[in-house]
Description:
Blueprint: H1 2-18, E1 24-29, E2 35-40, E3 46-52, E4 61-62, E5 66-74, E6 82-87, E7 91-98, E8 104-111
Parallel strand pairs: 1-7
Antiparallel strand pairs: 1-4, 2-3, 2-5, 5-6, 7-8
Amino acid sequence: MKKLAAFLLGVILLTTACSTKPPSVRVQNLRTNKANVQIKLANSNTININDVNAGATSSYQEIVKGSSMATAVIQNEKDTPSIIFTADDDKNYTVVIQSGTTATLKVDVTDK
């Protein structure tokens, strides 16, 4: 009985450790104005991360795996920068609205 319990515990731990987690995305706004970001996902759905204040970072939202495009609309600015990135399982993505004369985006990736 102890061997069976140890085996089942091992299987549970192995299954939990090897399970994949869907990718997640958030927005970090390094500009001086509030920003709204729309992310078009690989499945053609969109998510909106709105009202990200200057210097703030939003919370993570899960997205689908595949190619995504983020577009930022920044309050009182005419440029709407975009960036394409590929989302993979077990990764967190941060769309960074960079400071500077012209608004640009970059994407930082970390493991979950």
